[in-house]
Design a protein that fits this description.
The chain is α/β, with parallel strands linked by helices. It has one domain: Alpha-Beta Barrel (TIM Barrel). Helices cover 35% and strands 21% of the residues. Strands 1, 2, 3, 4, 5, 6, 7, 10, 11 and 12 form a 10-stranded mixed β-sheet that branches. A two-stranded antiparallel sheet has the order 8-9. Strand 6, helix 6 and strand 7 form a beta-alpha-beta unit.
Length: 243
Amino acid sequence: MAHRGASAYAPENTLPSFELAWEMGADAIEGDFQLTVDGHVVCVHDYSIERYTGIDRRVVEMTLSELRALDFGSWKGGEWIGVSIATLEEVLSIVPSGKMLYLEIKSGPEIVPELLKQVAKARIKAEQLVFISFDQAVVTRLKREAPELVVNWLVSLESNDGVISPAPKELLQVLKLTGADGIGVEAIPDISAEFVAAIRGGGWAFHVWTVDQVALARKLAQFGSKSITTNKPDLILRALRRD
């Protein structure tokens, strides 16, 4: 899965980044989505647009037209001057048949009605979509209002002398509580086959982010990770296809 598109090479979360990921053969793209002040869903990771535009304003306080007037590409390099922020509608429209889109929700539960509206309008199959969020309230609401959709909970992991926290038992409790279909965890090196098996054995899909190291990607694939998110889909695809 291409993290924010082929984001090692093109401006993250933009249409050129996603198109490059498809050209590289990615099975899926991952994008971040937020709600604007006038109710549109746009594809951007940071809550402030300063890193992309040099303007310290929050997405939630801006209209779509204000965001569209700005350059979201040149921060990555001169060849990307003039690249615009993408809307959810635009991203949905460029997912090829047989490929997938993972939508990371950066807003709170208030974004859910507009998300579902846009998905219903799009010419894309439900099985091509996976919604992901760190916010348990977002996961819960999505599964309550659209139980047919796949929704995964995201969580960061920590390791202290090889002991990972949260432990699988704690993670499984949240998965049951929210109704999530799976989990996406930070790909720390100490993840073991036993850790992955504890999640998968409970009936949940296991995913990892963000992996740009070939050895780690190979290990996690062998352990049974359903997806491996990477900034360099070309590198990781080549490595895994040789296995």
